């Protein structure tokens, strides 16, 4: 179609209807896709409330009776409560260490100039290219030798280590946008570098710190590979590991499995719903490292 | 404050991060390469055997099959996730409530544990109570029912939908940021020139975000090589290595058959292949400019 035809008022209605049709088709597709994409999760939660019998016979209807027993059994007998505790401890500890270490590192990288600065930044960036599974075997051997296998440290340390590059990336970027005058006043006043760090830099970086916290928490909470390799004591298993045990072998108590799975995803979903923008921006920032 | 104080602060501030990172990320890779030269069952003595493990690897048909599976994943990601995410992004990049809801819905799987994702999809594919077979029955397409996860020929392909479902949200948001960053003036200029709809899409929008598309492809490649959890949970690499990936093969070699040396060899191979792929894709896409 020539430009003249496009601009002509007579052609307007033609393109208008075409656009309308394409638009509608696009929206139908996207709505169907949206429903399909949410459905598995919806199905999971609904099914967790069913009894085993109903689950087998009517996998897709709403529960006849909303059964809470599954959740109680999962929490107590199947030790989901313990797994919850372990996951919480490990995730919170990794979070704290990551915040502290990445905070310090980002402060230095964003505010100071020193000879090896470029190399340091390169160091962290290159590390992001390393496939984490290649570290499983040597870390296993290392931890065995340090006798920290089957302890909380076996997870806290690697989680923190692997969270560092993203955290540093996000924090450094954020700190670079903060005018230097803010610390300069403090320096002139005689505040020590440590004082400036704790009393000025950390509070000011709160938005970035909260993004880092959420990301580190989610990654630690959801990690499976490290937990699988480094933890074998059942009293120390984190949620993903504990839930995966339900997938093994002869588990036919589907309702129990579903309840356990639902319990484990509740924190993640809650965090996501509360902090949507931050989670989405944070995860993409971490992935697209410039 | 003098420069010695500053230097000391810098050192102290950086030390923990550097040490932790070096110890848990870099050094293990080097160690892996070191262990790959040995034959070791994990306990007792390790015997040095030079590059024999590598020779074995190159002749190992399972290794090559595994590599092929990884390639299937990479292709599925690049040809599946990226275009799908792009398509969704183009529809969903404005800011009204429905679009935000749909964006969140598509992104949601990113915050779920891979274990849960794997188990949910196990149920989807379940021969008796699975959603997929149920839907096929309802649509009177029962003849299409298959042993989705136990048929060696199709198992690896059955793993693609969960993979796409998990990660498409990430690429969606990446593309949406890119689309939202296109300057408004370009939109207006396009209107004035009469470029609309598909013309606008292909001649203006896509070229503007080409850089982001390239990055997304690199991420896809790197990400697909990392797949371990999903496959481990859903099929353990079976049946009979049909869905084995490099990472699961490495895991099995080390922890199931107690060949730490050989497992380390596969580990090192993963690193080399990753670096090669990333390097190649960087080189290929930068030449396009």
Tally of separate helices of chain A: 15
Helix vs. strand class of chain B:
mainly alpha
Low-confidence parts of chain A lasting 5 or more residues at pLDDT below 50?
none
Fill in the CATH topology of chain B: MetI-like fold
Task: Kindly report the greatest chain-chain contact and the residue count on each side.
Answer: A-B, 95 and 87 residues
Overall mean pLDDT of chain A: 84
Mean pLDDT of chain B: 83
Structure characterization notes:
The complex is a heterodimer of chains A (290) and B (289). Chain A has 290 residues and is mostly helical. Chain A has two domains: 3-48; 71-287, MetI-like (MetI-like fold, Orthogonal Bundle). Chain A has 15 helices and no strands. Chain A has helices spanning 3-7, 9-48, 52-57, 69-76, 80-111, 117-127, 136-145, 153-176, 181-188, 193-204, 206-222, 225-230, 239-245, 254-274, 276-287. In chain A, α5 packs antiparallel against α11 (206-222), α8 (153-176) packs antiparallel against α11 (206-222) and α8 (153-176) crosses α15 (276-287). Chain A starts with a helix and ends with a helix. The model of chain A has no long low-confidence stretch (mean pLDDT 84). With 289 residues, chain B is mostly helical. Chain B has one domain (62-287): Orthogonal Bundle (MetI-like fold). Helix content of chain B is 73%, strand content 1%. Chain B has helices spanning 3-35, 52-59, 61-92, 97-107, 114-124, 131-138, 155-158, 160-180, 184-193, 197-208, 210-225, 229-234, 246-256, 260-287, and strands spanning 38-39, 47-48. In chain B, β1 and β2 form a beta hairpin. The radius of gyration of chain B is 24 Å and the shape is globular. The interface between A and B is large, with 95 and 87 residues.
Name some characteristics of this structure:
heterodimer, A: 290 residues, mainly alpha, MetI-like fold, 2 domains, B: 289 residues, two-stranded antiparallel ribbon, globular
Strand and helix map with partners:
The complex is a heterodimer of chains A (290) and B (289).
Chain A: H1 3-7, H2 9-48, H3 52-57, H4 69-76, H5 80-111, H6 117-127, H7 136-145, H8 153-176, H9 181-188, H10 193-204, H11 206-222, H12 225-230, H13 239-245, H14 254-274, H15 276-287
Chain B: H1 3-35, E1 38-39, E2 47-48, H2 52-59, H3 61-92, H4 97-107, H5 114-124, H6 131-138, H7 155-158, H8 160-180, H9 184-193, H10 197-208, H11 210-225, H12 229-234, H13 246-256, H14 260-287
Antiparallel strand pairs in B: 1-2
Helix pairs in contact in B: 1-14, 3-8, 3-11, 4-8, 11-14, 13-14
């Amino acid at each position: 179609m020539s430009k003249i035809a496009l601009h002509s008022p007579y052609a307007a209605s033609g393109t208008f209807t075409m656009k309308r049709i394409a638009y509608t088709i696009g929206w139908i597709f996207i709505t169907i896709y949206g429903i399909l994409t949410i459905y598995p999760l919806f199905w999971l939660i609904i099914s967790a409330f069913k009894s085993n019998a109903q689950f087998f016979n009517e996998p897709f209807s709403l529960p006849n009776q909303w059964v809470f027993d599954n959740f109680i059994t999962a929490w107590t007998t199947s030790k989901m409560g313990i797994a919850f505790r372990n996951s919480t401890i490990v995730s919170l500890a990794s979070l704290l260490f990551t915040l502290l270490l990445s905070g310090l590192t980002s402060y230095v990288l964003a505010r100071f100039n020193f000879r090896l600065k470029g190399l340091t930044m390169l160091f962290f960036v290159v590390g992001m290219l390393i496939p984490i599974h290649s570290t499983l075997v040597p870390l296993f051997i290392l931890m065995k030798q340090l006798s920290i296998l089957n302890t909380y440290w076996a997870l806290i340390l690697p989680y923190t280590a692997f969270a560092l590059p993203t955290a540093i990336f996000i924090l450094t970027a954020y700190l670079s946008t903060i005018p230097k005058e803010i610390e300069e006043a403090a320096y002139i006043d005689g505040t020590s570098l440590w004082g400036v760090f704790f009393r000025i830099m950390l509070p000011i970086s709160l938005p970035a710190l909260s993004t880092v916290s959420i990301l580190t928490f989610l990654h630690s909470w959801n990690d499976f590979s490290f937990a699988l390799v480094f933890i074998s004591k059942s009293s120390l298993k984190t949620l993903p590991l504990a839930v995966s045990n339900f997938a093994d072998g002869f588990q036919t108590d589907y309702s129990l499995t579903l309840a356990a799975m639902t319990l484990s995803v509740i924190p993640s979903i809650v965090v996501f719903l509360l902090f949507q923008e931050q989670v989405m921006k944070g995860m993409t920032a971490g992935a697209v490292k410039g | 404050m003098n420069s010695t104080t500053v230097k000391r602060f810098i050192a102290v501030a950086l030390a923990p991060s550097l040490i932790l990172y070096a110890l848990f990320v870099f050094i293990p890779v080097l160690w892996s390469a070191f262990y790959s030269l040995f034959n070791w069952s994990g306990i007792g003595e390790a015997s040095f055997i030079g590059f024999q493990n590598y020779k074995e690897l190159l002749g190992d048909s399972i290794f090559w099959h595994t590599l092929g599976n990884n390639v299937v994943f990479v292709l599925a990601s690049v040809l599946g996730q990226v275009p799908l995410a792009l398509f969704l992004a183009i529809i969903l990049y404005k800011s009204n409530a429905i679009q935000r809801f749909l964006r969140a819905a598509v992104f949601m799987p990113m915050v779920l544990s891979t274990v849960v994702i794997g188990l949910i999809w196990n149920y989807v594919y379940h021969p008796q109570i699975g959603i997929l077979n149920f839907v096929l029955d309802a649509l009177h397409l029962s003849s299409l029912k298959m042993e989705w996860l136990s048929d060696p020929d199709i198992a690896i392909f059955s793993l693609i939908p969960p993979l796409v479902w998990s990660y498409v949200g990430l690429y969606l948001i990446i593309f949406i940021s890119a689309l939202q960053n296109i300057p408004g003036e370009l939109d207006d200029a396009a209107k004035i020139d009469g470029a609309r709809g598909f013309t606008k899409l292909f001649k203006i929008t896509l070229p503007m975000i080409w850089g982001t598309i390239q990055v997304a492809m690199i991420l896809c490649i790197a990400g697909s090589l990392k797949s371990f959890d999903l496959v481990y949970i859903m099929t353990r690499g079976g049946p009979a290595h049909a869905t084995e990936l490099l990472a699961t093969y490495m895991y099995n070699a080390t922890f199931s058959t107690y060949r730490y040396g050989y497992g380390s060899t596969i580990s090192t191979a993963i690193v080399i292949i990753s670096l090669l792929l990333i390097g190649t894709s960087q080189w290929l896409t930068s030449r396009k400019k």
